[in-house]
Each structure stands twice: as C-alpha cells, then as structure tokens.
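Notes continue from the previous slide.

Worked example: a multi-chain complex. Inputs as given:
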Amino acid sequence: MTRRLLIFLLTVATSVSAGCSETPTEQGVRGESPSAGPESSPTALALPRDDDGFLALVPEADAVVVANLASQRSYWNADNTLILTDWELAVTEQLHGERTPRLVLTQGGGVVGDVSLDVSSSTTFEPRETYALLLQNTPMGLGIVRGPQGVRRLDSASHVRANFLTQLAAAVAAAHRKESE
Amino acid sequence: MKTVRAVWKPVVGVLVLAAVGLAAHGCKPPDPPILGPAPDADNDGVVDANDNCPSLPGELRYSGCPWYRVDVCSGNKPYSLGAKWVTATPTFYYASSLPSTWRDVVDYAASTWNQVGAKVTIKKYTTIVSLPAQKDGKSVIAYGPLPDGIGGETRRWALYGIVIEADIVLNSRAALSIGGSATTADVQAIMTHEFGHFLGLQHVDDRTHTMHRTIPMNSTIHRTLCAGDVDGLKKLYP
C-alpha cells in the first residue's frame, strides 16, 4: 500500500515538473519571430493630440512659419465689390520653406470706414499674438493651406507652446522624410 | 511490520513535500507570447483587436474610432459672436448656380437654426436669382469656385456694425454630397455651419461644435447643433 502510494507520488511529481519544463522550449521557438515585443506594439505609442488636424496638413505646405502681426491694411478692390486686407507678418521661426523675415498675406474681409466684411474662410490676426502658419504658393500669391485650417494661434503658456512647436517640427521632419522616399 | 511502517511514514511525508515543492518550483507562469505585428487595417495605430472602428482611422483614446463617432458635443459650450442683423427675419435668395437638388438640404440647415428659440428666423425668397455673391444688398446662396480645402464660405457685410447682407458660396471645386462619404463632405452640415455665420456667429475651437472651422468627411454630425452653438445664437438674439 505504502509502496503504491510512494510510486504514485513520484509519478505525479515527475510528470508535473516535466510538463512545466516545456515552456522554455516553446519560448525559444516563438523568440525566433523577427518582430518585437510589447514596446513596439502600436497601441503603446503616445500619439500627439491634434484635435483640428493642423499637423496633418503639414505635408501640403510649401512653407511652415511662426509669425507675429507686424501691420495690416484694408482697402476696396478695383471694382468696389470686395474689401481686402493685407496682413504683414514678421516671421520669428522658419520651420520649412524659403527663408523670409516678412511676408504679406492678402485675404478677403476687413473694415474700411463704416463698412466691414467678414469672410468666414479668411483668418484675422491679432497684435501681440503668435501664430503657426502653413503656407502654400497659389496662382494668386501666397496663401494659407485650407483657409482657416492652416493657422494655429499659439498658446501663451510657454511649455504648451514649446510642446506644440516640438510636435510641429516633428511633423515637418516626417514630411521631409516622406518626400525624400 | 509495524517497525517498517514506522520507518516509512516520515519517508513518505518527505517525498510528498518534495513532490509538491518540485512541482511548484518548476511551474513558473508562462511568459507572455511574443507575436508579430498585429493587424491594423485602418493604419491608425490602434490594432484591430482593440479597435472599435477597425475600418475607420481613429484615435487611441476613443478605442480606434474617429472622434465624431464618440465625442459628440464636448467642450465648455464655446461661442464667438460677430455682427448681427437688426431684422428678425434675414432672408436669402437661391442663386441659379446652386444645384436645385441641394435646395431641400439648405432649407433643413436653415430650419435647424430657426428651431433653437432665438429671436431670429431665417427666411427665403422663392425667386431664383442670377446674381453673384457680392455686395448688392441681396443675400444669396450660390455655388462657385473657392480655394482648395474649403467647403463653403460666408461673406457677411455690415454697416455701422449691423449686418446688411450675407452671401454664402458652396465651393464648386470641392467634393460635396448630400450625406457625405469617405471622400466628400455633407452639404447640409456645411450649410448648417455657414448659416451660423450668416446669422453672426464666428468660429470656435471645439471641433465637436457646428461652428468649428473644420468639418469631418464621412459624417453628418455638424448638421446638429451643440450647446455652445445654441447659446451663442441666443446671446446674439435674446
């Protein structure tokens, strides 16, 4: 009786440890897979927040700048059907495109005397604010990519601004890489 | 016999303990499997197994769905006000350039704002006019070329800060359709947004609101107003 019990216990112990010893063998086989572990899983990436899709428009831009308003001038067009405004911007950072210290954007809308025109696809610039702009060359001159979508007023908090500009620079670098591929 | 049993009992006990200990030592929990790249059909960085919208590019924080499928009317009720009409019934004409099949959805877009309880009602003339969208004292809904990437545009004229005319142009160079699709934007949603400008509202930064500067493709979400849109109109026309 005792011998049977002894044999039973030894058999159980041997089979349990033999079953557990299979793990390293299987791991070795799976380890040959060329792809990596959890750190390369796409879900582990921290995606930057780009709520209004501004960064996604970077590849469409011929120039990416950070700028402040230097001056503005509104006037009637030649046939008095439209008010236009020239926005002169002082460029403080040029992230992409031909370097230029100043640029002029002409857009519909503005105020002349008692009459004002608000054009929803135009952008207005405020003094003392800083803007990131995605610019493109058009047959009519320099324009903003997709109207108001290609302009982002930068947050006044320096760390938020710096974080955004880092993301913007990364988006510009990614667009360069894609272009050169 | 008794002696033999007395000797074997502790031996058996030791063996039992050894067997259990051996088993426990050898049975470490298995390491997690190491897998190849997980499928991600919409290439949005959220693998299909975790993606509630596997065929639509979305965001990690929305389990792979685009925001407009899950994030409806968030934000802190933002609005931004421009010039307003003095009349309680600003009225527009259809320009002959506007496809006639779009007139119904333009009407729906106007009625969306008419139902919010503000003291203003958008009305229309039944006459179809052949006028361009320029300053002539007549507000028209027209169809014509605008720069790339713009679905529509409102040109709101004001004299001494009072709106006297507002023209809306839908972009003939843009891909538009009723209902929208993966490659087209919804005409009714665009018109709902433009009628907000027509009445005096400006853009807001919250993308869930109809008055945000962008409109998602493949979505009719901006046909419906958010609290900030409604509050803005009521503030403008109390």
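Summary box: Chain B has a mean pLDDT of 87. Chain B touches chain A through 60 residues (CB under 8 Å).
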